[in-house]
Amino acid sequence: MGTRQPTPHGVAVCEELVNGLNDYGALVVSGLALGVDAAAHRKCVEIGLPTIGVLGHGLRSIYPAQHHALAERMLASGGLLTEHISTAQPDKEHFPMRNRIIAGMCDALIVVETGKKGGSMITAQFADAYNKDVFAVPGRPGDRNAEGCNHLIKTNKAALLESVADLAYLMRWETATPPLPRQATLFVELAPEEKIIVDLLTSYDMLSIDQLIVAVDKPGSQLAAHLLSLECKGVLRTLPGKRYMLVSKAT
């Protein structure tokens, strides 16, 4: 997410982040707006990374009109999403509403350049309310395009982000614990709750955090502790999008 009038530096940072996300097979969700949104979508299309544009209108038209060709290219790997009927027009009040969908879909919201007011800040507020991870790229003091990002960081509404390596570390997409051989995982001592999780993942290739919460019927905080323990024991592997699989299935 970001301003509709990014600086060349902001566009470059956005493209660099998308390039890095390609290594993790991420899905990029944004609003198909001018500026940072379009830069992210274009880079995704260029490198073949799936991307979804959440629209503030129906599917019979594309707004802004100059993004029509980009939207068509996105259909090959990703797509377009809207809550409106096909004939709905791009009315002003639709766009803040669509930002809640972007916030709800993402596991990590990244703000590249933005002022203190605008759609990106609204989306960040939604994401924070939904307990999503929010990240902001810092900028120079006094830079109007950096005011929003710096404010989110200063008020602890977003983590400071300088590279995809920061994102991967904070989202636990990488782990310092080397995977154990499959035979070794059979002899790891597991708590009863951990064994339930392992048994579930034995039956599926992977499960999302939401699926696990429903399946084990435990609060998210308790489940997160068990998942972290299993990861530290080398039994579990964390995937992009807060999905999990057994190490033995990944090797």
Report on this model:
The model is unreliable at about 175-185 (pLDDT under 50). The longest helix is centred in the first third of the chain and has 14 residues, at about 10-20. This protein is an alpha/beta fold and about 250 residues long. The strands form three sheets. A three-stranded parallel β-sheet has the order 1-2-3. A three-stranded parallel β-sheet has the order 4-5-6. A three-stranded antiparallel β-sheet has the order 7-9-8. It has two domains: about 10-170, Rossmann fold, CATH 3.40.50; about 180-250, Arc Repressor Mutant, subunit A (Orthogonal Bundle). Helix 6 (about 145-155) links the parallel strand 5 and strand 6. The protein starts with 7 loop residues before the first helix and ends with a helix. The chain has helices spanning about 10-20, 35-45, 70-75, 95-105, 120-130, 145-155, 165-170, 180-185, 190-205, 210-215, 220-230, 245-250; strands spanning about 30, 50-55, 80, 110, 135, 160, 205-210, 235-240, 245.
Structural class: alpha/beta
How much strand? Answer: 5-15%
Q: How many strands appear in the DSSP assignment?
A: 9
Name the overall outline: globular
Provide the CATH topology of the largest domain: Rossmann fold
Task: Give the spatial strand order of the biggest sheet.
Answer: 1-2-3
Q: How far apart, in Å, are the first and last alpha carbons? A: 35 Å
The percentage helix is 40-55%
Low-confidence stretches: 175-186
Total number of helical segments? Answer: 12
H and E order: HEHEHEHEHEHEHHHEHHEEH
Topology at a glance:
Elements: H1 8-21, E1 28-30, H2 36-47, E2 51-54, H3 68-74, E3 78-81, H4 94-105, E4 108-111, H5 119-129, E5 133-136, H6 147-154, E6 159-160, H7 164-170, H8 182-185, H9 192-203, E7 207-208, H10 209-216, H11 220-232, E8 236-239, E9 243-246, H12 247-250
Parallel strand pairs: 1-2, 2-3, 4-5, 5-6
Antiparallel strand pairs: 7-9, 8-9
Helix pairs in contact: 1-2, 4-5
